[in-house]
What does this fold into?
Amino acid sequence: MAKHFISIEDYTSDQLLLLLDQSAQLKELYRNGGRDLCLTGKTMVMLFEKPSSRTRFSFQVGFTQLGGDVIYTRPEDIGGPLGRREPIKDITRVLNGYVDVIVARTFAHQTVLELARYATVPVINALSDMAHPCQAMADMLTIREHFGVLEGVTLAYIGDANNVTYSLAMACGRLGLKMIIAVPTKYAFDNETMDRLRGRGASGQLVSTTDPYEAVKNADVIYTDTWTSMGQEADKQQRIKDFQGFQVDRGLLDAAPENAKVMHCLPAYRGLEITDEVIESPQSIVFDQAENRLHFQRALLKYLLTDTGER
It folds into this structure.
């Protein structure tokens, strides 16, 4: 059976650490002019229901650098969202005979699960409404680069409890970070989700608050994301109103330890969830984490498509 990457909760702490180690090794190799062409002759298809810049660029560049070929598809290339023109199980079983890996960026998490159910090749979740595991693991790589460790680091997430938050919380739990989510009550995870995140974490701590200043007072990392995700545009003005006081600005940064780092998964709406001053400050490591999407995903693709490392 093919090994997939759908959610961080499907992987053990040891597997995640192995992927981070391999990410760092490949990053060093490529920065020093080396090449690992382990995927020569292989083909990746990218099924994207939602547009993207970083996700598309990083997967396409990463797979190409490993020697493989890439097919990128938009909804209009296959008659609309996955499952509209023909069943997902039919599309998947056709692709099994054409490609070596499927990368899917979808609106519904169920779509990714159905792809994985019928796939005999690896399926990678490049974003769904529930999870964004590749982003969270690139973030873990970035934090480890800047702090030297992961276990014991405190991450304060300020803003909407969304798919990025979910995957970050799962990664923090698996890898021993403490995570504090500061979110308005109506946008917080429900009790069932919080219990699942706590229960499936290994050694981290997860707490929730409605006070951003309380969240950041001992934070090593301050993380934020857009208040309005793709598909929520009709609620944008209401969300802007509801998230007043949750902006990562100079005042919030001053309430945190002076060595705290700032992260954002991008795209950033400067002047809303984060100010231009903060994202351009020396404490910002936003573009380090964007680059690390490439390095983590390159390692993930090698892990899934070769016999390297333990499974």
User: Anything to note?
Assistant: The mean pLDDT is 94.
